[in-house]
Specification:
The protein has five helices and 16 strands. By secondary structure, the chain is α+β, with helices and mostly antiparallel strands.
Amino acid sequence: MLKNMRKVIIYCPIIVFLSISFITVVEYANAQSPINNSVDISGIYISDKQALYNIIQINNTVWIFGTTAPDNTSGTIKNIFSGMLEDNFSRITGKWIDSPLSNNMKSGIVNFELFIDKSKNNITLNQILQATGSDNVYPINMLTKYDPAVHGPLTIYVSMENVFINIPRSPVSDLLYVGVSGQKNDETPLAATKYLGTRGYGSNITTDLRIGPFSINNENDTLKVYILGLDKEDGTASYTLISLRDTLIQLMEPSYNVTNLVQGTNIISSISPALIPRGCNGVVFIDMFELSSESLRNITAFNGENSQVNTYSGTVSPPGCGPPSQYVVKLSIMTHQ
């Protein structure tokens, strides 16, 4: 009890001092900073580490208060930043300090690039990294203005949007099956497959193949995604789709990590030999993506969606088949259905 009373006696003057200092600085900022009505970035923000930050703008002065965790309800301050809007309101420069109640207090200089869309609702602060040997580094890289529809919690869907066949694997056309699978952490994987039928040179296919939702609510969450395309004749569609789905789920085991088409083909042949019989049959694209909670929040921060288009060159086909195939696949990561 006596020990706790001593802590209160020590901490109370510090808190009073901080409160008085903050009021003094705010009054000084009000008196010294030119008034700017074109931008106001005040509000609640979420970091790339999924911690909540509170930004207060007073004229051209900016205060940033970091809390301890995304679900923080106690209002505990973890770090404090004070700086100024500069360069036509595209940059914030200033200094930060850990909470004075921290046992290992750090501090330093940190600058941000400021991005504001035309609606002034979507606001992002990106830390401008500086070369330094010090471990006194500001704990986050990015802040985005909090939007409950986007940030709480992060719900992810994965979609194979489109497949373009520049060159088929078979001489004229491929009998095409595609699939996508996803796994959050060590949870049960989700997988979806689709039969696209006979498709040849220049086929531009809207696949609309989607899996989810995946609830990403912890900074240590990861999402692993596989996509797979297969040219397979001489097989029933229903059996092939089931085998393709089972293979995609098996690929989620940590020991499987495809990095190219040859490796992917060998792995699939080992775990599901019947999926790739002889002849012109074969894998036309395969890829694996592993995304952290931080990267998922970053790539979907502005409009809730991120798309990437990749080109996959195939392996040499057996004699009598076509040239090495070339497929272009569009994959989307989104926070809405």
